[in-house]
Amino acid sequence: MMTDNQHIAYQDILDLAGLRAKVDFIASVHADQPDQRRQALLAALKEANLQGREAARQLLLDDGSGLACAARISWLQDQLITVLHDFALAHVFNGLSTPAAQRIAVTAVGGYGRGTLAPGSDIDLLFVLPSPKAAWSEPAIEFILYALWDLGFKVGHATRTVEQCIALSREDMTIRTAILEARYICGNRPLATDLETRFDRDVIRNTGPEFIAAKLAERDQRHQKAGDTRYLVEPNVKEGKGGLRDLHTLFWIAKYYYRVRDAADLIKLGVLSRQEYSLFEKSDDFLWAVRCHMHFLTGKAEERLSFDIQPQIAESFGYQAHPGLTAVERFMKHYFHVAKNVGDLTRIFCAALEDQQAKELPGLTATLARFRRRTRKIPGSLEFVDDGGRIALASPDVFRRDPVNLIRFFHIADVNGLEFHPAALKQITRSLGFITPSLRDNEEANRLFISMLTSKREPGLILRRMNEAGVLGRFIPDFGRIVSMMQFNMYHHYTVDEHLLRSVDILSRIDKGLDKDIHPLAVELMPHVEDRTALYVAVLIHDIAKGRPEDHSSAGARVARRLCPRFGLSPKQTELVAWLIEEHLTMSMVAQTRDLNDRKTIVDFAERVQSLERLKMLLVLTICDIRAVGPGVWNGWKGQLLRTLYYETELLLSGGFSESPRKERAAHAARRLEDALTDWAPSERAAYVAMHYQPYLLSVALEDQLRHARFIREADCDGRALATMVRTHEFHAITEITVLAPDHPRLLAIIAGACAAAGANIVDAQIFTTADGRALDTILVTREFQVDADELRRAASIGKLIEEVLAGRKRLPEVIASRTKGRRRNKTFTLAPSVTLSNTLSNKFTVVEVECLDRTGLLSEVTAALADLSLDIASAHITTFGEKVIDTFYVTDLVGQKVTNENRQAHVAQHLRTILSGEPDETRGRLPSGITPPQPATRSVARQTKSR
Q1: In terms of C-beta distances under 8 Å and separation of at least 24 residues, what long-range contacts does 443-447 make, across chains too?
Q2: Which of 543, 560, 554 has the alpha carbon at shortest distance from 487?
Q3: Tens of pLDDT, residues 512-527
Q4: Phi/psi at 3 (5° precision)
Q5: What is d(CA 541, CA 543) in angstroms, rounded to the nearest whole number?
Q6: How far apart are CA 461 and CA 496, in angstroms?
Q7: How would you class 719 by CB atoms within 10 Å of its CB: exposed for 0-12, middle for 13-18, buried for 19 or more?
Q8: CA distance 391 to 376
């Protein structure tokens, strides 16, 4: 906000006397050489600026004060501008002979006007012209501006008279805000003082409510644009919710409405307590320190605290790793705590503002009109009143008299659909000390809490207000541990507490029957969930043990067993909640990384779930968890995988899944396909159906089988050995590319490489072989365009590229190199590559799972490596979690058997780890000259010579 600059030793930043002496020497030496004089002046100022900023950076590392750093850079900038101004008047325009009253005033406005400046920030200047003005005034201003630009500064500027400033301030709120912060730098001081006096008298007076309404509306729009949450894991330090701009808004309002120039005056006015003022200063100082470090580190006005600079900023602050949390995660937790403090202070400030505005005369803006509404009683409550649709306190000591009222306050707001009065929230923040172990164990308090959590109204909103007020983290200390905690990865978009609250929001929507178009099965099942309470509790606390050294699912289950009895849940409910938390990742991982057509997958999953009721609840919890991760994480394809897993498991749990008739079911599917080919000749139908093996007939829907039949028939009629077909799935948010080609051990590697070259992200692959030696592979890629026509064109171009690579008309390494040129590999995140081989996950296949950092062409490299290892891929499942991928391949050796030899398993794992950790091999996946189809009888043992 505002800072006292007296304690800052500016002589450590710049030898001002030495700089002035150097400038005077330059003026005397080059008195008759204006060009050389200007160049020498700029060189001296540039050197002083670079040395001064480097000194400010070192001092920031030494003392850690962001406000002091911003004040030092602002002071340095003042001196450079003053030296420029004085040089222009004395040595360029002979302005010193002009009467002082006719000279210009140079003032800083905007953030610079507050006396704080970040290393990369713009310099906002207002040149105030006297009336009358000297003839040299505007040329001198141009001289100063061009010199600043040549020095590399970004300068925003305006040149106006005092009258123009006053007139424009009345019309434009942005200009009014800028002039509110005007600060004299050099030149005609009486002129700058006159502007300040006139602005206070002619603009500010009697316009407080108008200014407040405009600034708060501007803040709300800025928050909405930034996502309306302060818990984004890559926050904008300046513009984001809980950032510096929020503090600036309070500064503007304080200065405008309360007419204060020092933040400490707000204590005297009763707006902030001494403790709150101290928090204000600490928050301001921390945010400035982060911003200055960011600018110094990046060399520009970077305001987004992105993943790639967070570790370095954490190191600059001296954070160290603790068990369960890395250094960067501890730093970011501190950042989000500060952002929350800014929100608390904003609420307290607005409450004080309302008390003042309640005495205003009629004619207030719509934003402030509600201040004058009268209070009324709330039925059934003596402690709280309805103040214009907002719950307020009937007396200031309601929480001291009965601490349960700290929980009851939110419950009554929920039951009566009331918003929250800022003064009440302010009092709650000041009463958090009443939340003691006795309140946490209070039966009534816990009953009220569970009632709010399972409310049919807006439980997510109520819990979020409890969290913002600090009540939720105090009432549930385990929840308090994860408040403001971030996870340093690209997958999670929010802090852990925000993720959990959003999960409750989504569950509430499902419970109300909303979002049926997004997840129809969950909406259908929710009314039949027998224990809503257990499900809501599990959703709220499923990640409550994040940040601990042990697995958060197991640790979370232990926390649940301790918390649930306190909440009033029965032993049966407690065990159900604990089981849901312990298994909350299982359904997602099975659906996305396992072959759902493999019966062993379903059997193993069913054994873990054991009951239909658990299956229903786990499905809903999984959906809430994925959707609350962040925008764009959930898509229809994930929904389809979860539905498939649900339906297959439901059949098994209800006794409808059997392995014995597999042969009969395949024969039935073949007859059904043959019967559906009504426009084909009988002999042609029989020959076509005979081409397909059991896995295809049993796992591909009849509708898709018919499409494939037409596709293959057209390709055969046209004599095309290579062909592609595309279609879009808008609901699933994926696009399907089907490839028909002569079978080849490297086929999937080539297709994956072509997709990578085209920038397509593969999410799944279905791989089938026909009896005549051809492959029918279906690749599913994430959708890029909303309009089907655009997406179909994109998919067709990918299909064409696949055909050209397979035909040998284009070389894959060259295509990938040209498409990925200039892309840098992600060095922000580190993850040790992991490879596991298992023969227990499938009855027929060895399951190879790889986990590593994602990169362009990775799938192509891995599939090519599997071909090098003489392994045949039956199915591939590609899952991306931000920067991390988990790819699963169901493979056999070339005679169709599992890989059982331990030495060979170790060789496969080591080779794949080498591929995952090394740079891409540009020769991998190369075809000699197109693909020659192997003979049908030798397909299973066909091998491609390894090319290097």
Answers
A1: 443/568, 444/404, 445/404, 445/407, 445/408, 445/475, 446/566, 446/567, 446/568, 447/568
A2: 543
A3: 999 888 888 999 999 9
A4: -135, 145
A5: 6
A6: 16
A7: exposed
A8: 10
> pTM of this prediction?
0.75
Residues near 736 by beta carbon (within 8 Å), at least 6 away in sequence: 726, 727, 728, 729, 778, 779, 780
Tokens of 866: 């599997």
Look-up of token digits 């490839």 = 739
Q: What is the DSSP string of 502-528?
A: HHHHHHHHHHTT--TTT-HHHHHHGGG
- By C-alpha distance, which of 448, 449, 456 is closest to 417? 456
425/516 Cα distance (integer angstroms): 36
- DSSP string for residues in 584-642: TTHHHHHHHHS-TTSHHHHHHHHHHH-SHHHHHHHHHHHHHHHHTT-TTT--HHHHHHH
Cβ 602 vs Cβ 596: under 8 Å: yes
Nearest to 76 by CA among 23, 136, 5, 138: 5
Give the side-chain half-sphere CA count within 13 A for 212: 26
- Of the segments 125-134, 563-572, 781-790, which one has the largest average pLDDT value? 563-572
Average pLDDT over residues 65-72: 93
Residue 213 confidence (pLDDT) = 83
Closest CA to 543 of 507, 590, 571, 503: 503
State which H helix or E strand residue 648 sits in.
Answer: helix 636-653
Based on DSSP, count helices (H) and strands (E) in the chain, helices before strands: 41, 16
Name which of 92, 91, 119, 87 is nearest 106 in CA terms: 87
What span, in angstroms and rounded, lies between the C-alpha atoms of 401 and 431?
11
Cβ 849 vs Cβ 838: under 8 Å: yes
- 549 DSSP assignment: S
To the nearest whole percent, how much of the chain has pLDDT over 90? 45
Q: C-alpha angle 314/319/323, rounded to 5°?
A: 120
What residue type is assigned to position 656 of the chain? G
Q: Is 35 helix (H, G, I), strand (E, B) or coil?
A: helix
One-letter amino acid for residue 649 of the chain: T
The contacts of residue 365 (CB under 8 Å, 6+ apart) are 209, 210, 213
CB contact at 8 A, 356 and 422: no
Q: Is the peptide bond before 132 cis (omega within 30 degrees of 0)?
A: yes
| Rounded CA separation 470/258 (Å) | 28
| pLDDT, position 652 | 87
Strands (E), 733-883: 734-742, 762-769, 774-782, 834-838, 846-853, 871-881
Helical (H) or strand (E) element with 108: strand 105-108
Where do runs of H (alpha helix) occur along 778-901? 788-806, 812-819, 858-868
Residue 742 tokens read as 């002569």
| Tokens 């607005």, residue located | 350
